[in-house]
Known about the structure:
elongated, 53% helix, 0% strand
Amino acid sequence: MSDLEARNPEARAAVSIGVLPLEAMLIEMQNSDDELLNQIRLLPDSETINAIQQSAPPATPESAPQGQ
């Protein structure tokens, strides 16, 4: 925010930051027709992604033909 304020004080003045429960945000995203809310993507951090990938079983080829 300080970088934005240094580059564009008017834009910084228009920005408002707030904290709300994630559940409230998810409900609003689900129930709203606001296009800006539809652009929000919630992604886990890289540490979480790595943990999920490490705990997932290895992928196996689907229906690989077997020789007779």
